[in-house]
Automatic annotation (TrEMBL):
Keyword Transmembrane helix tagged: yes
Organism expressing this protein natively: Paraglaciecola arctica BSs20135
SUPFAM superfamilies: Nucleotide cyclase
Catalytic activity: 2 GTP = 3',3'-c-di-GMP + 2 diphosphate
CDD domains in alphabetical order: GGDEF
GO MF terms held by the record: diguanylate cyclase activity
Protein name in UniProt: diguanylate cyclase
Length: 426
């Protein structure tokens, strides 16, 4: 109990320490005052007792002194000294000389305070009073304390028992009604904090409605507010995220479309929409390698519009462009999906045919030539006709590279032009 009092472990014990320290202080003050009053009262009562004793023994001592009976005086003094309130006895003769000096304590262990009663010893002779000396009876503070302390020790024991019982009763009451619910409240709040779970609610067990329940309700309202706030923030964040995702997806799609356009622009001829020279040769080179690996033939058809300068000069550059577009569309419609078709520059076009030998290529080229020479186009109300010369080379005969195929096809084309144009040279 003492250790718990000095080093309290919980709130109720701390409160008890404060309350009981105050209680102890007040009790000590009141008890000290009571003790002082009791001490004074006891001292008065002992003085009275000494006086009564003097009254009683003055006669026999005076008689013994008158009769010079020292033995009787001594035995009377010895009897007096046995009384518990007597600490010493002095007898003085009529001249003030100390004839008897008796103390029940040694000089070394003298009591703190000594008090005494003095009375004259007289003898009556023929109606006259003769002074024989004086009698002094001593008592001390120890006698008073002996009496007072007995009563007070009983009081102190009662007080200690009362204090201990009260202390534990108060500790129990504070524990039951304050410390334990507070501990429970703290542990539940701590759990919410540790798990970051604001959906949880504080629920104190076995509690009547009081300030703690009010505190619990306030905390729960606070948790509800936090939970709502968090949900709103989450919704906002989700909305922002999906908006961001949509924006990114849209942007990615736009970028993809732009890339595709850029790629197409880089690969295709801007006027006719078919492959440009660079991408045509790149693809043709790749296809030729595949044909060689599969040991199958490939053919290169090189086409050049005849007298195109004249078309431009006669109908204008714009009409010339229309002719180029018409040519590309017409040829494109007559080719297979797998045939490679590109504009190699100006009015020069190329076709690369995989798995196709010279005969087949010639057959196709002539079909194309005829289709062009029979075609007419209307531009600004004017009818334009034009022809194409074609040179063909095939990899069937030699292991040509794409550049060699092209060069040789160009020579054939030159031959076709030489032969009067609108002609296919193989
Ligand atoms: N309208 C138009 N003309 C072009 C384009 N590219 C080249 N040309 C013209 O095509 C003409 C080609 O002329 P030439 O090389 O002399 O050949 P050609 O007149 O067709 O005569 P041959 O090839 O010998 O039959 C030039 O006048 C160029 O300006 C183009 O994109 N649009």
């Amino acid at each position: 109990m003492v250790t718990r009092f000095i080093r309290p472990k919980n709130l109720s014990q701390k409160m008890m320490r404060v309350i009981f320290s105050i209680y102890l202080g007040v009790t000590l003050l009141i008890t000290s005052m009571q003790f002082l009053t009791e001490y004074m009262k006891t001292q008065d009562s002992i003085l009275n007792e000494l006086k009564q004793l003097e009254e009683t023994i003055r006669g026999p001592i005076s008689t013994s002194l008158w009769q010079y009976n020292q033995n009787q005086v001594n035995s009377l003094i010895a009897g007096i000294l046995k009384l518990p309130i007597i600490q010493g006895v002095d007898i003085f003769d009529k001249d003030g000389k100390n004839t008897i000096y008796e103390r029940i304590y040694s000089p070394a262990s003298a009591p703190l305070s000594i008090f005494a009663t003095t009375s004259d010893l007289k003898w009556s002779l023929n109606g006259e009073s003769v002074l024989l000396g004086s009698l002094v009876l001593y008592s001390s503070s120890e006698v008073i304390l002996d009496r007072v302390l007995f009563g007070f020790s009983l009081m102190a024991i009662t007080e200690i028992i009362k204090l201990s019982v009260l202390f534990w009763l108060f500790v129990w009451a504070f524990d039951r009604y304050l410390a334990t619910p507070l501990k429970e409240l703290m542990s539940q709040v701590n759990e919410v904090q540790m798990n970051q779970d604001v959906s949880k609610r504080i629920n104190l067990s076995n509690m009547e409605y009081n300030e703690l329940i009010e505190l619990q309700n306030h905390m729960n309202s606070m948790l509800s507010a936090i939970e709502k706030n968090r949900e709103r923030l989450l919704e906002d964040e989700q909305a922002k995220r999906s908006w961001l995702e949509d924006a990114v997806a849209k942007r990615t799609e736009e970028l993809q479309i732009s890339n595709e356009k850029l790629e197409k622009l880089a690969k295709n001829d801007s006027l006719t929409g078919i492959l440009n020279r660079g991408s045509f040769f790149e693809a043709a080179r790749h296809l030729l390698i595949l044909c060689k690996r599969q040991k199958s033939p490939a053919s290169f058809i090189l086409m050049d519009l005849d007298n195109f300068k004249m078309v431009n000069d006669t109908y204008g550059h714009f009409s010339g462009d229309k002719v180029l577009v018409h040519f590309a569309d017409t040829i494109h419609d007559l080719l297979r999906e797998s045939d490679l078709f590109g504009r190699l520059g100006g009015e020069e076009f190329g076709i690369f045919l995989s798995d196709t030998g010279m005969d087949e290529a010639f057959h196709l080229a002539d079909k194309l030539r005829k289709a062009i020479s029979h075609a007419t186009i209307e531009v600004d109300g004017k009818t334009i006709t034009y022809t194409v010369s074609i040179g063909i080379e095939s990899s069937e005969l030699e292991d040509y590279s794409i550049d060699e195929l092209f060069k040789r096809a160009d020579l054939k084309l030159y031959g076709a032009k030489e032969k009067g144009r609108d002609y296919v040279e193989r």
